[in-house]
Design goal:
Layout: H1 6-21, H2 26-36, H3 50-64, E1 69-77, E2 83-93, E3 98-108, E4 114-115, E5 118-119, H4 123-142, E6 147-154, H5 162-169, E7 178-184, E8 194-198, H6 207-214, E9 220-222, H7 242-247, E10 252-256, H8 275-295
Parallel strand pairs: 3-6, 3-7, 7-10, 8-9
Antiparallel strand pairs: 1-2, 2-6, 4-5, 8-10
Helix pairs in contact: 2-4, 3-4, 6-8
The chain binds zinc ion.
């Protein structure tokens, strides 16, 4: 090679390295999902999901030396007034420009457990959101955001959004400094390649940010299941952890697929998810987070 070309080659290599750093690791994402939704994990019901929590804490342990990671243990009564103990896990990646303003990315890691010896693996609900959250935590560790990002792995969603309720009731940071919640619940299974987003009905100012993010994906993005035309179970405003943020007036976006035949069935298995679609959704959530991180400039949308 001519000597004069060497700097060019080095630049190209550096650019390639940067590009690789900015990508979500697809192989790791799918391996995490396969593990968390295997029978060994027993369906991850609150009170019996210690193995899942250990898996997450092991994966997050690479953060512990540099960023605060914590397990918050809390008691609550379920719908039948039975006492349970839940455990939320949060890890914060500090922002470079607005470290005291927060975006909360969230997913619940619990599911409905084992019934009559049959394991409800909950691959889509919600090992998919959990592993997406883990992938995003790894991503932002390598690519520090401007705003601090709290990665919240909530417990006890299936028992009535209890982990999220606990978090928003007594957050680890000043609640007024939480600018946005982005919640993922069921993001891996849809042969139609369609992902639905809720949040713009209650917080219309989110729309202009999402418009920019949508340009970065080939997925079909819908805005359904919110507003007065959706009633009962068809309205998803309170259907997952984002509902607890809404209750306290914190803007939220909820990413999720349409209900499918595997919803809360033993057939919600790893073999039924759509890996390409799942990977694209995770990248879309990353792009969406990036738009907010770039454009919010530390300001509240409330
Ligand atoms: Zn769920």
């Amino acid at each position: 090679m001519k000597k004069a070309l060497r700097p060019l080659l080095i630049l190209l290599l550096l650019a390639g390295h940067q590009w690789a750093f900015a990508q979500i690791d697809r192989g790791q994402l799918l391996a995490d999902l396969k593990t968390l939704s295997s029978d060994e994990y027993g369906g991850r019901q609150t009170g019996e999901n210690e193995l899942a929590r250990t898996y997450l804490l092991d994966a997050l342990s690479e953060f512990i030396s540099s960023y605060p990671t914590m397990v918050d243990t809390f008691g609550f009564l379920n719908r039948l007034r039975k006492q349970y103990t839940g455990h939320n896990i949060t890890v914060t990646v500090p922002g470079t420009k607005y470290p005291d303003r927060y975006i909360v990315l969230s997913a619940h890691y619990d599911h409905v457990g084992t019934r009559d010896g049959v394991v409800y693996n909950g691959a889509d609900d919600n090992a998919s959101g959990t592993c997406a959250l883990l992938a995003l935590a790894r991503h932002y560790r390598n690519n520090p955001p401007k705003h601090s990002i709290i990665f919240a792995f909530f417990d006890a969603e299936e028992m009535g959004l209890k982990g999220a309720d606990r978090f928003v009731e007594d957050p680890p940071v000043d609640r007024d400094k939480i600018l946005l919640n982005i919640n993922m619940d069921m993001v891996s299974r849809n042969p139609d390649r369609t992902i639905n987003i809720c949040g713009q009905y209650d917080f219309p100012e989110l729309a202009k940010f999402l418009k920019k993010a949508k340009k970065k994906t080939d997925l079909t993005v819908t805005q359904m299941h919110e507003g007065p035309e959706y009633t009962g179970a068809n309205n998803w405003t309170m259907s997952s952890d984002h509902g607890m943020f809404l209750k306290r007036g914190i803007p939220y976006l909820y990413f999720g697929v349409e209900d499918h035949p595997g919803y809360h069935q033993p057939s919600d298995d790893f073999s039924e998810i759509n890996p390409d679609f799942y990977y694209e959704v995770v990248q879309f959530v990353k792009e969406t987070t990036n738009v907010f991180d770039k454009k919010l400039r530390g300001k509240s949308l409330r």
